[in-house]
Amino acid sequence: GVHMELKLFDSERKVMEVLWEADAPVTAKEIAARLSGTVGWNKNTTYTVIKKCVEKGAIERREPNFQCFPLVRKEEAQAAAAAELVEKVFDGSASLLFASLLSGKQLPPEEIQRLRTLIDGLE
Questions:
Q1: DSSP 3-state assignment of 63?
Q2: Measured between alpha carbons, how far is residue 43 from residues 25, 33, 49, 50 in Å?
Q3: Taking Cα atoms as reference points, which of 43, 68, 33, 38 lies closest to residue 53?
Q4: Which of 6-10, 13-17, 78-82 has the highest mean predicted lDDT (pLDDT)?
Q5: What SS3 string covers 67-116?
Q6: What CA–CA distance (Å, rounded) separates 53 from 119?
Q7: What are phi and psi of 59, to 5 degrees?
Q8: By percentage, how much of the chain surpasses pLDDT 90?
Q9: What is the pTM (predicted TM-score) of this model?
């Protein structure tokens, strides 16, 4: 993936979530309105975070009205975040991450089946 180096902070992810859910370009004003309702941010905070996303290449700004267009798919952002988690917390070992997930709390049978299917697909 082109965007695997992409590190989104929690605040940036909140902005991206609005775009992913909308599945269409959203104006900065609309994003600010939505996040003021859900997260309680003021407009300046939201605009600052949007600017960071633009600088990172996660959002493209289009005129008129400062429309924000996501350049990163949700799956890409999730993959990058997962890779970072494995690096940071599990010394780069995905199997340690899985062991931790499996031991920490009982996974429902359908999740375990999904993991099996995924792993079988890789082999």
A1: coil
A2: 18, 8, 10, 10
A3: 68
A4: 13-17
A5: EEEECCCHHHHHHHHHHHHHHHHCCCCHHHHHHHHHHHCCCCHHHHHHHH
A6: 33
A7: -130, 140
A8: 58
A9: 0.79
- Find the length of the chain: 123
Between 2 and 85, where is the model more confident? 85
What are the tens digits of pLDDT across the range 49-74?
A: 999 999 999 999 999 999 999 999 99
Pairing of strands 67-70, 59-62: antiparallel
- As a whole number of angstroms, the distance between CA 123 and CA 108 comes to 23
**Pair of tokens at residue 2:** 């082109």
pLDDT of residue 5: 63
H or E element in which residue 52 lies = helix 43-56
Question: Is the Cβ–Cβ distance between 69 and 25 less than 8 Å?
Answer: yes
